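Hi there,

I know you've been waiting on this one. I reran it after we fixed the sequence typo, so this is the corrected version. Both the input and the resulting structure follow.
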Amino acid sequence: MKLFASFAAALVIVGTAAAQMPSGLKLQTRYPIAGAEGWDYITVDSDARRIYVSHSVRVNVLNEDTGAQVGTIEDTPGIHGIAIAAASKHGFTSNGKENTVSMFSTSDLSLIKKIEVGKGPDGIYYDPGTDRVFTNNHGSHNITAIDATKGEVVGTVEIGGNGEGAGIGKDGLIYVALEDKNEVCAFDPKTFEVKHHIPLEGITAPTGFAVDAKNNRFFVGGHNKVAQVIDGATGKMIASFPTGSGTDAAAWDAKDGLAFVSNGEGNISVIQEKSSNEFVTLDSIQTQQSAKTLAFDGKTGKIFLPAATVVVAPAGDPSQKPKRTITEGTFAVLVVGNSQ
């Protein structure tokens, strides 16, 4: 993600229903955060009731239930994401502009050390089965593995692409969407061996990725406004749905059987799993333009999305990208929950 200024006998392909059912979820409140810098991923620590928000050169840590500021983790240049290893009370940030990972204490948010990783670390996630943290390195097209207790690099996974959303499959392998390859890569978090690649047909630049490990189903969202449900055992597409533009993240709600795909245009696409082979779309949840990443709390059923008012101005040179400016005082975490 770029900084912005989680064998079927019969496969059933289900399209968008003519009359979509309501999801029962809506925007409830906003937690304001000072500053006008860019952001990317957001992480929820459900047990500690905390939200970790990437914010250009720092992490803003908020109370999940009230939005009150708990503290900050400074000196994280070009931060993309945050991973929490609760057992060791350690947290990790991927610092894209420094090619490092900051290891910090979740007890007092103090820096423990900085760890050199591959080039351009982006997404970062924790695997409790191996007690390892993994960073998707876009510059070197690989993944760095870190011992979450010792804070030491223990290996590299050569995936040959730019990893985005990731999740742990039913088989214990980690599956990563490769944005530049239009495929999903599976690797063993114990041995770092790449097991196989799943080509995606009909999805361009997959970024959002979520896993229903119980039924072995993957939910993949791409930049071409399409989300698909993939059979984790065969790699076959089970269902395909339209989404909004600017897709960048996804999450799975195991309790209610819902997959969420966040779209930067200002909504969340909701896919309901009626059975392991039957899927339908529910009505989209309106959020805010720029709310492209999300984190889901399985305990409360709430979704958290960073967003701000972003003003886009054409560049003076047509060969350059438009200039994006974040309006001071508008950055916040959106809180989406059940309307009942």
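Quick highlight: Residues 138 and 295 are 22 Å apart (CA to CA).

Best,
R. S.
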